[in-house]
């Protein structure tokens, strides 16, 4: 390569150099000139979630128990592979949903995520902090489309402004909804002007993603169900004159998203549950 460089005329050398730089320049320009977002997008596209294996067993007795009853997760929001569910399709058919973890670069160069406060008039989870998203519809071609469509309906986020880069492992919600976290990168934060749908969203705000790996502003509550103890994590966050608490499923998803993004585990113990799933699931079954 060195000899080739010496023999090439100046114009040829310049052309060769530009050809190596062009992919990086193109990627950076597509993210508002941010080389960090371009590198993050490339990193996350390489991520592959662990398989959602419903039966990982240590011994024959555990296997027999799981095959007869399975496991389930509470509203704390843990990965599906950690909380296997029955493989009998007639017994358990969780509905599918997707949420959008929309990451952008803040003014100080930190990575931030868009969050919403649900309307107090909603029948479920009213007034709680959540990620934009909702149940899949028949016309959705994939989870990315579900998440971005719902984000547009809830907060006016144009899907063309978001580059969907990967999806995380499915989570199970309190009401046994199968939630797919979709990570998208906001190409240019200046092009997004939040327009919350008042019927669904009371407020739109953002928080530092790395916060969900730190022990600061975090508290937890130990609960017990069916003989198994587990932790629910709460993150207290203040922006402007508003105070928010991010907890439960949303906190669980953001802990995982931050771990994948920053390539490190949280600075606290998650204490994931290992609940056995009830043999019979009623229509309104939910965890405490």
Automatic annotation (TrEMBL):
Cellular component, GO, one term: cytoplasm
Protein name: Nudix hydrolase 15, mitochondrial isoform X1
Domain Nudix hydrolase: 94-250
Gene name tied to this protein: LOC108823090
Alphabetized SUPFAM superfamilies for the sequence: Nudix (SSF55811)
GO biological process, one term: coenzyme A catabolic process
Biased composition (Basic and acidic residues): 135-144
Domain of life: Eukaryota
Keywords attached to this entry: Hydrolase, Magnesium, Manganese, Metal-binding, Signal
């Amino acid at each position: 390569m060195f000899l080739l460089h010496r023999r090439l005329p100046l114009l040829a050398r310049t052309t060769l150099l530009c050809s190596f730089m062009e992919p990086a320049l193109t990627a950076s320009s597509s993210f508002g000139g941010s080389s960090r977002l371009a590198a993050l997008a490339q990193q996350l596209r390489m991520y592959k979630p662990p398989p959602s294996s419903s039966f990982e067993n240590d011994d024959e007795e555990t296997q027999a128990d799981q095959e007869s009853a399975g496991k389930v997760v509470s509203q704390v929001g843990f990965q599906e592979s950690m909380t296997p569910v029955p493989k009998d399709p007639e017994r358990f058919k969780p509905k599918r949903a997707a949420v959008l973890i929309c990451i952008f670069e803040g003014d100080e160069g930190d990575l931030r995520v868009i969050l919403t406060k649900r309307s107090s008039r909603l029948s479920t989870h009213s007034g709680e902090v959540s990620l934009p998203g909702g149940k899949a519809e028949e016309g959705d071609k994939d989870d990315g489309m579900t998440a971005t469509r719902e984000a547009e309906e809830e907060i006016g986020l144009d899907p063309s402004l978001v580059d969907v880069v990967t999806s995380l492992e499915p989570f199970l919600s309190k009401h046994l909804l199968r939630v797919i976290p979709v990570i998208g990168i906001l190409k240019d934060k200046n092009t997004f002007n939040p327009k919350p749908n008042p019927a669904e969203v009371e407020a739109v705000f953002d928080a530092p993603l790395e916060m969900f790996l730190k022990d600061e502003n975090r508290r937890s509550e130990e609960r017990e169900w069916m003989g198994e103890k587990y932790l629910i994590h709460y993150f207290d966050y203040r922006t402007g004159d508003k105070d928010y608490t991010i907890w439960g499923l949303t906190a669980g998803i953001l802990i995982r998203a931050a771990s994948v993004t920053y390539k490190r585990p949280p600075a606290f113990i998650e204490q994931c549950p290992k609940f056995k799933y009830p043999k019979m699931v009623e229509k309104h079954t939910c965890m405490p």
